Amino acid sequence: MMARKPIITEIQHVHDALESTIAMLSTRSDAFITRGEFVTVTDSTQDLARAHSNDQAGLVVVAGRQTNGRGRLGRQWADTRGLGVAATFVLDAKTFNTEHLALMGALAAHHACTDCMLDASAQVGIRWPNDIVERTNQGSGCKVAGVLVEVLPTSEGKRLAYLGIGINVAHQSRDWPEELKQIAVSLHELGSGVDRAAVVRSLINRVQWACSRTLEELAADFTQGDVLKGTYQGFVHDGKVYEGEVVGIDPASAILLRTQDGGVRTLPALTTSLIKT
Length: 277
Hints:
Elements: H1 7-25, E1 35-42, H2 45-52, E2 59-66, E3 84-92, H3 98-115, E4 124-127, E5 131-134, E6 143-153, E7 159-168, H4 196-211, H5 215-225, E8 232-237, E9 240-250, E10 254-258, E11 264-268, E12 272-275
Parallel strand pairs: 1-2
Antiparallel strand pairs: 2-3, 3-7, 4-5, 5-6, 6-7, 8-9, 8-12, 9-10, 10-11
Helix pairs in contact: 1-4, 3-4, 3-5
């Protein structure tokens, strides 16, 4: 079992990992992340990043604990006593559209998780659109990480993107509240021995990596981590429910679903939602 470091020591390691990673990136001419800020506790890294960005892209905010984090569709992101990683990256919304950002976040989170696993390819995958989950035969495994994209105007009339990523790192079974025990899992529970400092370092580098990839390259990479292909799922599009076997997902364009009559229906990825069971 992974021994937990004293909290003060562990937080210092996270802070040091952030600073050293930013120092390395800031020497590169192609760096998208050039400034870093660490806070011990904050309500939301999304809100703090917006307040501290000075209306400029390039900032990453990392929190030792997030007390009121939020996920997609207004859901709450549970921090559970500071055992995970909460980070928000501030990027130029003119360079990356919302769909590109969501895919970047999914791939960055997925690779950050797999970087920290001994046998990650067999254990962690992407559940469309951007949840990182434990792999199962049904494609509906417990959630390891999540992504939130918010694009907001600045005081100067520009638009900045706030890419929030949360990763469950050091949780043990006793740490989850009852309502999360069947739907959440941590890297530690999947066999990883890394600490939050290592995850922060990997995540920042992986966001930089994702920023440098085209939408087509990211979409191709997505197919390698896709956990829904070959599974039976339900989707909602234009108020209607469609069920069938997932033939394939192009996250930037379409979901191909083989329905019960044997036909293949194409659902537009940008306006379709997965029915989670």
